[in-house]
Amino acid sequence: MIATPSIGPAAGSPTESRRRSYALAARMRRLATVLLSLGCGVALWGLVSLRYPTTLLPSPAETWDAGVELWRQGTITDSVVKSSQRILLGWALGLAVGVPIGLLMGRFAIIRRLLDPWVEFFRFIPPISFVTLAVIWLGIGESSKVVLIFYTSVFIVTINTLAGVLAVDEPKLRAAESLGASRLRVLRSVVLPSTVPYIVTGARLAMGNSFLTIVSAEIVAANEGLGALIWRARNYSRTEWVFVGIIILGVLGYTFDRVLRIFARRFLGRFQVRV
Amino acid sequence: MADVTIRFGDFVAVEGADLSIEPGELVCLLGPSGCGKSTLLSAFAGFIAPYRGEIRADGEPVRGPHVSRGVVFQSSDALFPWLRAIDNVTFGSRLHAMGRAARRDEALEFLRLVGLETAAAKYPPELSGGMRQRLQIARVLANRPRIVLMDEPFGALDAQTREVMQGELDRIWRETGCTIVFVTHDLNEALLLADRVVTMTAGPAAHIKNIHRIDLDHPRDVDDPELRRIHVALRDDISEEVLRTMSSEGVTAA
Fold first, then answer.
1. What is chain B's alpha carbon radius of gyration, rounded to the nearest angstrom?
2. Residues in chain B whose beta carbon is closer than 8 A to a beta carbon of chain A?
């Protein structure tokens, strides 16, 4: 990074424009490195795929063609929209439940002792083991999928929030108490804002979990969705569809995380969020 | 406070401390680090309960933190970095209960008192160390506490800033007439500010060693002969304790 002097030349001056063109060149170099890495990866994939039939390992070109075909059918758009809806809904529910539970567990020892064993038990059970139960209990509609995403989000948000509550600076709590804040006001106006960076980390990890879970959630009776696309490919022996699904999942996950980070940086900066 | 003993498990931090503070007085607790002076202040604030003895403020026993006893902490972590300076000041329950306009006027009044009126819209991380401590003082005073407890408030500042802040505190104390209990390990700080300087023995099981009264006008001149005399007395008090700690740790001074 180029250091900016506090008393620098005015914007638009020759020095300023030179500095800016340096920054631009540096950014282009970084972008070139990324593109080079991606290009090498695809080239390697292409070389290896020459040795195998399409059903085993489709080439980049075949995957691209399958992608175009699925795009023309509208499958890709539908899948992305459907899966995103399920992920965002389940993830948002996980946040809405996980954050308050984490806050309460951190502030009230009794609540923590009551809930801790359950959190510690369930967080080790992979969502895929609940697929059957979700279908039996909730049917084959949207709710079973959303609940599985919720399940995979809620514990990690809870644990991160709890860690954040336990890390609140003692002087802040003491200051708030001696300034006359009630317990509820301390929780809302001191503990919650102090915990925001931990909540953001929890939300990011939960988003990752949601993507890991969406394919399992769409195993059963989903006609649309990226997971459904991947499962359906098996019935038609279309390995290249699996590749299309995987690539879109990766790109979509990256995009969601980017948006989340930009949002956090833009709106939560004053809570000392560093992402 | 009468016969106050504070223990953490089996560790006796402070033993049998007796001290009575008059309204409007500025009392310094002075002692080497680890002597239990901050512990005593925490007990006074109500953050920790004494194992034995009783602490009273205005005749009422101290049971937990209260708005009547404001606390300025050594660390500016006590500020809320997500709130602007002015909103840190309005956090206290007295201003919090006011209407919007009155609250703002009052808060600005206290920011002006500590010379921060131009920084009202800034967030604490944008302020210098000295400004952050001023903000802490403004936030506490805005609550109009009966007693202000200060735990080495200038301990983390550089020497020049500390000197300015000592002068500022002297002025604020005279303007507001509040009661201040001030913990420090800086002898000169105690001499400049205090009506009485309470020295403490080295811990564990620290107790109050001596109480020196300083009847000199404010602001004080460091070259005043009377102040010099007290300086020597205090220095002897403290160095005795430091030497004792060091010899108990196996270090012998030349």
1. 19
2. 45-47, 64-67, 69-71, 73, 75, 77-82, 91-94, 96, 123, 125, 136, 139-140, 143
